[in-house]
Amino acid sequence: MTYEVPLVIKKKISIVVIGNTGSEPYILRTLLEGFNYHVEVHWVGSRKELIEILQGNIPTYDHVVLSCHGDEADGGSIL
Q1: Which of 10, 20, 55, 64 is deepest in the core (most CB within 10 A)?
Q2: Is 31 exposed, middle or buried (0-12, 13-18, 19+ CB in 10 A)?
């Protein structure tokens, strides 16, 4: 008797990393992959790139997690 593993479709999610968040994006990715998500990560390098992502000009999956921290010295700005 052979056992076949059923095909499980992976859900898709994007992580958008803004600024220095330490190991947070790696932990998020590992956690989400453990819950059967296909994860793509966007490492944002500029304000313009972030705006392009948020406007949909740079493709992401339907579900997006923002990995960022505000800067208290800058009034909470993320970039």
Answers
A1: 64
A2: exposed
